[in-house]
């Protein structure tokens, strides 16, 4: 449990894929791998009609990459392996034939913004502020960038990527298209998710599958693209700048 977890449950055709980590739902490679696998398995499960991506707890949705694991990366190959974990999760969402609903109950940082962007329809609370903090530690949102850009456009993605220390509000994220709806409370959000998921679970699977193909048209090359981006991050994470910046973040 200290290294995080991924859980799956299904009721009335609604498959919940939940991840968690005691450090603000951060993402070590073990969680990334399990998350990608579980999304793929849920998509293939005949009992599942729609997938809901959830994180544990009532506070932070996802703090992004695990700083502990970033600090342990010793060479470019290990860096590539780690950042490829984000590529695998995004591509699992992209390739899934079933629609994926995002449940963003709190702040999303870095890879967390990438996860939200990889869903097909995203609900959030008013506390779900966003930040792409990678440049602040000398890396850059290279792997999640295509997913974020696809969702909110190059201009908004650039704003997040360049001004890497500033939060953008949930309202900002809704206006840019990351969130479809935002709610004052988790309870209100969960009720809205339940209602939409219930309707989708009784909808035409073939029609939803065809819609998904259209939604993700033009991303067919992402298997290669995201791995190329992971190589960049895997190289940059070895820099003295990044080592010192991560150490400073961990000490605060």
Question: What can you see in these coordinates?
Answer:
This protein is α/β, with parallel strands linked by helices. The protein has ten helices and eight strands. It is 51% helix and 15% strand. It has a six-stranded mixed beta sheet, with helices on both faces. Strands 5-7 form a two-stranded parallel ribbon. A hairpin with a 2-residue loop joins strand 1 and strand 2 (14-20). The relative contact order is 0.15. The mean pLDDT is 96.
Question: What's the structural blueprint in terms of helices and strands?
Answer:
Elements: E1 5-11, E2 14-20, H1 29-44, E3 50-55, H2 67-72, H3 76-95, E4 100-104, E5 108-109, H4 111-117, E6 121-125, E7 130-131, H5 145-162, H6 170-176, E8 181-183, H7 186-201, H8 205-215, H9 222-236, H10 240-251
Parallel strand pairs: 2-3, 3-4, 4-6, 5-7, 6-8
Antiparallel strand pairs: 1-2
Helical residue percent band: 40-55%
Content of β-strand: 5-15%
Question: So what's the overall shape?
Answer: globular
Supply the number of helical segments: 10
């Amino acid at each position: 449990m200290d290294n995080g977890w991924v859980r799956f449950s299904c009721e009335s055709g609604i498959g919940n894929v939940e991840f968690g980590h005691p450090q603000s739902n951060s993402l070590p490679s073990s969680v990334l791998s399990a998350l990608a696998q579980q999304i793929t398995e849920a998509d293939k499960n005949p009992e599942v009609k729609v997938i809901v991506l959830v994180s544990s707890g009532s506070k932070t949705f996802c703090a992004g990459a695990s700083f502990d694991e970033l600090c342990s990366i010793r060479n470019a190959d290990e860096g590539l392996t780690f950042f490829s974990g984000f590529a695998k999760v995004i591509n699992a969402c992209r390739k899934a034939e079933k629609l994926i609903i995002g449940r963003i109950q709190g702040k999303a940082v870095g890879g967390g913004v990438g996860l939200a962007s990889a869903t097909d329809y995203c609900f959030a609370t008013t506390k779900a502020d966003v930040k792409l903090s990678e440049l602040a530690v000398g890396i850059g949102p290279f792997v999640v960038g295509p997913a974020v850009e696809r969702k909110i456009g190059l201009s908004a993605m650039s704003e997040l990527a360049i001004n890497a220390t500033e939060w953008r509000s949930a309202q900002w994220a809704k206006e840019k298209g990351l969130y479809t709806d935002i709610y004052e409370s988790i309870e209100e959000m969960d009720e809205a998710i339940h209602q939409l998921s219930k309707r989708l679970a009784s909808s035409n699977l073939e029609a939803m599958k065809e819609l998904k193909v259209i939604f993700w048209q033009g991303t067919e090359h992402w298997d290669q693209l995201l791995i190329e981006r992971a190589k960049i991050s895997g190289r940059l994470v070895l820099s003295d700048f990044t080592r010192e910046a991560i150490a400073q973040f961990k000490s605060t």
